[in-house]
């Protein structure tokens, strides 16, 4: 240890002679300042990569699982059950440790039969992953999901999407899944809402009514869903007009993600909206939007605040009367 200290002292002495002692002190002070300022900034941009790493570790596990079971009879319908339950346990543990994840209203998810779950889309819908895990663990069901085409272009994601029944959303496929008795989750705002909503939690659904028509055609109930503080965990930089124009024109998410903050997550499921043959798709879409908006108004302080969301890990606000 002493030899290492002597070596470092010698290097600093030579540098001091070369550039001058005063200048060396100035450089070291400046370097210390840069480390103090930029280390926290670097961390908030690195943390989102851990979610991507966790997803790829999940995919690696599925490939190992597939290899282990490839000799079983023609891949029976239940061959992936063990893998789904294992990953659900891991993701549920991640949510509990990192976000103190809670889910309220899980009893509203039917034990059998179809239901369309409609949720607000955060910058990263990690709350939806935790929700899927809870449905697998506590309900013993797999919830099919609709995802943006962008997700299907990410290298290596194919197996993960297949195992968890993720589709890119043609209405016919969605109706078929519900008619077969499955749960189906989707966000009408999709990637647009993920990228361009903000801490005031606007719903960027536009005039999308396809999800409502799906529920009508399948005669399925709709369950609204919202997760408190989802916008305070991850956020995007660069959501200016140019980014919006690029996305609308080329469907490219030209933004920079940061965050990964361990804020408190509480997922709330609203009362199911039953199938009503007298409602049009436009009327049903409006009714669902109002239901999700009501969950936001009831459970989310506006505007969202990262520090407050962090403190909620230790202190819960009194319920509104």
From TrEMBL:
Transmembrane stretches, start-end: 33-62
Q: Which InterPro entries does this UniProt record tie to the protein?
A: Plipid/glycerol_acylTrfase
One GO cellular-component annotation of the UniProt record comes to: membrane
Keywords for this protein = Membrane, Transmembrane, Transmembrane helix
Provide any one GO MF term from the record. Answer: acyltransferase activity
- Limits of the Phospholipid/glycerol acyltransferase domain: 102-225
Protein name per the record: Transmembrane protein 68
Species of provenance: Scleropages formosus (Asian bonytongue)
Top-level taxonomy = Eukaryota, Metazoa, Chordata, Craniata, Vertebrata
List the gene name.
TMEM68
